Amino acid sequence: MENSALQIVRKIVAEFGTSDVYAIAETAGVKIVYENWHPVTIGEFERKTLTIRVNRRALENDKNGAMLERKIIAHELGHFFAAGLKLEKKEEEAFAHAFAADLTGIV
Q: Domains in the chain, ordered, with CATH?
């Protein structure tokens, strides 16, 4: 892939002046909402409304909920920033995972 997740993370951190997922989301115009649903997924990105949905139940069930919350948001931001890369679904998921790990240092 020509634009690796790490390259894009570095560009975003330089452009936004931070690696804070909340600040990046706010500056990028991405809304973060918290909802409860059966914990099949822990987070979702809704491209049409530019909304990250975080599953509260996943956070409640995790011993380090704050770290998981940042990881979820970073992963979903990966989907947001992958929009122009024209990736297949599996490739986009891998990109979002790598993006989150590179942005937060959390694997």
A: 5-101 (1.10.10.2910)
